[in-house]
Amino acid sequence: MPIRYQHTEIVHATPELAFATINDLPLTSQWLPPCVSLEKVGAGPNAAGDKLQYVYKQGGRTAEMAGEIVTLDPGQRLHCLYYDRAFDVSVDLRVEVAKEATLTTHIIEITPKTFFARLMSPLIRMGLGKQTRDAAANLKKLLESKDI
Questions:
Q1: Residue 96 dihedral angles phi and psi, to the nearest 5°
Q2: The whole model's pTM is what?
Q3: Which class would CATH give 3-144?
């Protein structure tokens, strides 16, 4: 059974800047707490079907997940799926115009695939909300700074 969390943040930056920042995959390590690096495998602009390599640090260890861009709606949505032996992780990032601001929505869904991963589900569920809110707050701070 998937573990799902959704969080929306109001950001005082243009929707164009918000989406460009989300779509700049190497920049992800600046706002997503466990991310060490996120790279596209291959050259060219991001597109649905592109393969990804995600390196993260969790619990004092560094690990990797393969990934793929599932949906790319320029200016609006970047949906990626990451996977390894134990988990499938769907990361759906959306950008919407709001009155005098931008809304960024993070929808995270983690599906445990092994017995041990399913045993860890309560701990994952407890930490997912905080991690998602922290990522959204970090993205907001980055977008509202002049350092992009």
A1: -135, 150
A2: 0.93
A3: alpha beta
